[in-house]
Amino acid sequence: MKNIQVGLLGIGTVGSGVFAVLQRNFDEIQRRAGRGIEIAMVADLDTARAKSIVGDKVSVVNDARAVIANPEIDIVIELIGGYGIAKALVLEAIAAGKHVVTANKALLAVHGSEIFQAAQAKGVMVMFEASVAGGIPIIKALREGLTANRIQWIAGIINGTTNFILSEMRDKGLDFSVVLKEAQRLGYAEADPTFDIEGVDAAHKATIMASIGFGIPVQFDKAHVEGITALTATDIKYAEQLGYRIKLLGITKRRESGIELRVHPTLIPTKRLIANVEGAMNAVVVNGDAVGTTLYYGKGAGAEPTASAVIADLVDITRLANATSVQRVPALAFQPGSMSAMPILPMSDVITSYYLRLRVKDEAGVLAQVTGLIAGAGISIDAMLQREADEVSGEQGGQTDLIILTHDTTEGTMNAALAKMQALPTVLAPIVRIRKEELA
């Protein structure tokens, strides 16, 4: 049987990994797929570099549309990235009757609904395992392995750059700006790391997981997104003393009134496995009503880990190419006509618990004032520390840090209580608020 012919748009780090793994494991992949899979055509602006990677047996062009127009190409892999030309090319490939594999989480988080509808109408597949958590098969787990479950919540460390930075801050007691420069020097962070450190990359991925987990349209514009730029070594140290570690989490939860979708720094109990995921590694925890809690861990980026996910999609398409749309697994796990209209909840309605740090005057009555305001808001206190400010920060005399852990409350309630606490004349600096999740 003739090999499946694949066209590759962009042969950078991931594209070169896809080509290398397909070449190296051709026989093994063929045994699994039932047919050989080969890259027959590559489009890249740097044709000389592309030819040095793929050799003389693969057609190399500088025009992606030439790949899409080739009637011999069965599957198009989009590895260009971004929202612009990548969206146009994916939609053109679908219109041409090509199946599509992409690692482009930004494209799917923002334009996924349009893309999946176009693919459904044309009867082709759009696969995107590599878009979330690199080599971890989390999309397949959510879409197929956990299909019997009513998913309750998903929480993940889904950005390796920020996890590396937070691990280094904790291990070495350094502040964010210092560790960021080191991460850039080592190649863990881009020259412009904004998408990573501000939480946008993680929010793209969380948006996709929420859609698959709960059967809702992709709605990145409704996600709450916070990064790690304001985190300090002080709070990381205090969290450790209380038995917690701080991670940037993508979190989505099912509630009766809607779906929570948020990315922000989060305290996690040190005893949780996910709290011990260090460096640039990724991990996702999924809670389903039947299976309970499951953990998925591995490399979230890199040439061959991501290539592993891309090729898994190629194999799935090869197996299902002759199946009808009814026989195929829906892109977002739920049948297109059965998607839920449950809303994404505003952040003020989110229910979670909190870490608060207040720099206050070291004088009688301050603690009673603060705890009185918290109690007056109906918020229950879980634990409390009081530390002289100079123990961590070097500040001298007359100041102390109050560190408070609360039980669950709504974000809106906490916002109101914080405003009252901040207005106290004995509170000397902006109050630090970090959300806390037990992930039990």
Could you describe the 3D structure shown?
With 440 residues, the protein is of the alpha/beta class. The protein has three domains: 4-137 and 303-338, Rossmann fold (3-Layer(aba) Sandwich); 143-299, Dihydrodipicolinate Reductase, domain 2; 348-436, Alpha-Beta Plaits. The chain has helices spanning 13-24, 26-33, 47-54, 64-69, 85-95, 105-122, 138-145, 160-172, 176-186, 194-197, 200-214, 233-241, 303-320, 366-376, 411-422; strands at residues 4-9, 37-43, 59-61, 75-78, 99-102, 126-127, 151-157, 224-225, 244-255, 258-269, 281-288, 292-299, 351-361, 381-388, 399-406, 409-410, 432-436. Strands 7, 8, 9, 10, 11, 12, 13, 14, 15, 16 and 17 form an eleven-stranded mixed β-sheet that branches. Strands 3-2-1-4-5-6 form a six-stranded parallel β-sheet, sandwiched between helices. Strand 2 (37-43), helix 3 and strand 3 (59-61) form a beta-alpha-beta unit. The radius of gyration is 24 Å and the shape is elongated. The model has no long low-confidence stretch (mean pLDDT 95).
